[in-house]
């Protein structure tokens, strides 16, 4: 196994151990834990305590640099003293995906017992150059195919700000002429970093930009509305663990129904999400959305009758 992979495994182990601990961990306990776990993961681990301590310090520095998780030695031992919850890398998801990826390598037999999702992330080939451009404030240019307009291709020069993943597709959130724009990476071609720098608007927040949206699309022309929805108790069990939207508020949870209110812009993506649980869905308000769902279901019935 390559050294960079082994480093990430150790970092994953260190963060996981300290997160689960109810108190700070002393050096010997942490080093013993890493020795045992590295053996299970088939990772090289030094023999001498001095070499292990040097490796631990390097890993702690890399964890701070890569994931903005800050580990320090206190009077009680090692513990996580701070973390950047708004950091671009979701470390919990990263570590979970990384652990599964390394477990499913050809050298292991766990693939006999685990069946991962076969579909890959669409547009991922552009991630590396775009991340470089975003970090260094470099504008990019590319051709973009618009599926909604007869697959027309237009050339864009954009200030790249963020990357966002939604339903296994990657998107670029950038600014063009002071206007935020969203581009699906799988529709980008002839991508190039121009070398021209731009001044980033530090007040532009990705969370605020998508706060009233469902999925990836943002349209100021669509008003923000309160949507009240009623579901069966079974579907409610799933919606309690995985909310439909961050604004979800539970207004009824009993033996007869699970009812919620969400506040957002009602886009086609949101309507598709509602239809995925249409077997128990009842739209309480607004009435226009209730009527739209009814028509969609009636048309589907006719097509399949």
Question: What brief labels describe this structure?
Answer:
305 residues, 5-stranded antiparallel beta sheet, 9 helices, 11 strands, globular
3D architecture notes:
- The strands form 3 sheets. A 5-stranded antiparallel β-sheet has the order 6-5-4-3-7. The chain has a 4-stranded antiparallel β-sheet with strand order 9-10-8-11, with helices on one face.
- The chain is built from 9 helices and 11 strands.
- It starts with a helix and ends with a helix.
- The longest helix has 19 residues.
- The model has no long low-confidence stretch (mean pLDDT 86).
- Strand 1 and strand 2 form a beta hairpin.
- Helix 1 crosses helix 4.
- The chain is globular, with a radius of gyration of 24 Å.
- By secondary structure, it is of the alpha+beta class.
Short synopsis of the structure:
Helices cover 36% and strands 28% of the residues. It is an alpha+beta fold. It has a 5-stranded antiparallel sheet with strand order 6-5-4-3-7.
């Amino acid at each position: 196994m390559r050294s960079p992979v082994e480093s990430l495994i150790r970092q994953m182990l260190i963060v996981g151990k300290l997160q689960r601990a109810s108190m700070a961990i002393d050096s010997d306990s942490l080093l013993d834990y890493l020795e045992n776990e590295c053996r299970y993961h088939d990772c090289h681990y030094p023999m001498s305590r001095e070499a292990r301590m040097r490796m631990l310090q390097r890993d702690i520095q890399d964890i701070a640099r890569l994931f903005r998780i800050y580990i320090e030695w206190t009077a009680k031992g090692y513990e996580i003293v701070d973390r950047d919850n708004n950091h671009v890398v979701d470390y919990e998801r990263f570590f979970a995906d990384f652990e599964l990826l390394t477990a499913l390598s050809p050298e292991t037999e766990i693939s006999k017992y685990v069946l991962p999702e076969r579909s890959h992330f669409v547009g991922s080939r552009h991630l590396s150059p775009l991340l470089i451009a975003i970090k260094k404030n470099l504008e990019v240019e590319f051709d973009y195919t618009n599926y909604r307009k007869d697959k027309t291709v237009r050339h864009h020069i954009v200030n790249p700000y963020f990357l966002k993943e939604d339903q296994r597709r990657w998107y670029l959130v950038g600014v063009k002429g002071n206007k935020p724009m969203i581009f699906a990476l799988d529709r980008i071609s002839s991508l190039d970093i121009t070398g021209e720098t731009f001044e980033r608007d530090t007040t532009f927040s990705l969370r605020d930009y998508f706060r009233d949206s469902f999925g990836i699309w943002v349209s100021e022309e669509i008003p923000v509305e309160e949507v009240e929805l009623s579901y069966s108790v079974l579907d409610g069990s799933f919606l309690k663990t995985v909310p439909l939207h961050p604004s979800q508020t539970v207004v009824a949870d009993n033996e007869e129904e699970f009812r919620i209110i969400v506040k957002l812009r009602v886009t086609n993506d949101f309507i598709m999400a509602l239809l995925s649980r249409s077997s128990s869905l009842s739209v309480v308000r607004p009435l226009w959305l209730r009527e739209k769902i009814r028509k969609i279901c009636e048309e589907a019935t006719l097509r399949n009758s």
